[in-house]
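Review this fold:
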Amino acid sequence: MELTMIKTLRKLNKGVALLVGAGLLTCAAFVLTDIIMRQIGTSLGGTEEIAGYAMALATSWGMAYTLLEMGHVRIDILRSRANSFKRALFDVFSMIVMSGVIITIAVKAWPVLERSIKNGSTANTPLETPLVWVHLPWFAGWVWFALMSTIVTLCGLSLLLKRRFAETETFIGAFAEQETLQ
């Protein structure tokens, strides 16, 4: 059940990653258009601001995809010398810590969105972008990452309790080891 759930989450997050990638490509095209227009003496304006928003959104939404593809950096000097039970313990422990950190970030991101909504905040730029337009999807991305990391942690913990240690490595193990195992 756990591995089926992880497989489903990977597919779902792959779709999210494709949408985020399309958004980044659109942003890059917008910036490129602005650069070309500057060469002929005009400009779209606001490209720096929009690119900054795009990066913030890509980061918050892209983290869950990176987690499920085992792309987060890990220092595995102890883990690499351990047996499968201890590796599974390290993996689950690292996921518990990561989930705690990400949940904290998501909780701390809420007041930013709440303040934008309450005050009707706009960017202090010529575009005067309503910040709720940026903060809402940014906050949703952190909540998504917190949800994904919690589900992955619970799946890993479930497999650990069922003594299926080797299976935890397929979704919370170290990526470098995955390459050597195949």
In short: The longest helix spans residues 2-39.
